[in-house]
Amino acid sequence: MLLGLMAIVITPKEEEPQIDVTFADVYIPFPGASPREVESLVTNPAEQIVSEINGIDKIYSFSQPGGAMIVAIFEVGIPRSEAVVKIYNKLYSNNDWMP
């Protein structure tokens, strides 16, 4: 019990810790397509390609009429500029799969 109390007192604390978590939103337009078409032709292939990027923690996607939105969350500490360049390079190097 005494060691636990001592650990609480010694452990440094910050009121507002600075944690750098990088998010990247990618919108892929597909005018005139239904959400089902967008999901099968755009969202699923884009998710697969983005998930191959090193440093991605989570991916969320939304299919809507006329396009898809993909949100990529990178691991803590990856700089924003590096993350954007990785996504840009990966998507444009696989540009042939887009309708």
Secondary structure: elements and pairs:
Blueprint: H1 2-10, E1 23-29, H2 35-51, E2 56-64, E3 67-74, H3 80-93
Antiparallel strand pairs: 1-3, 2-3
GO molecular function: xenobiotic transmembrane transporter activity
Protein name: Acriflavin resistance protein
Shape: elongated
Q: Look at the structure and give the CATH class.
A: Alpha Beta
User: What is the residue-mean pLDDT, rounded to a whole number?
Assistant: 89
If strands are numbered along the chain, what order do they take across the biggest sheet? 1-3-2
The main sheet comes to: 3 strands, antiparallel
| Separate helix tally | 3
Q: Approximately what portion of the residues adopt beta-strand conformation?
A: 15-25%
Any idea how many domains?
1
Structural class: alpha+beta
- Find the CATH topology: Alpha-Beta Plaits
Distance between the termini: 63 Å
| Rg from alpha-carbon coordinates | 19 Å
Annotated CATH homologous superfamily:
Multidrug efflux transporter AcrB pore domain
* CATH architecture field: 2-Layer Sandwich
- Write down the secondary-structure element order: HEHEEH
Number of DSSP-assigned strands: 3
Which runs of at least 5 residues are low in confidence (pLDDT < 50)? Answer: none
The level of helicity is 40-55%
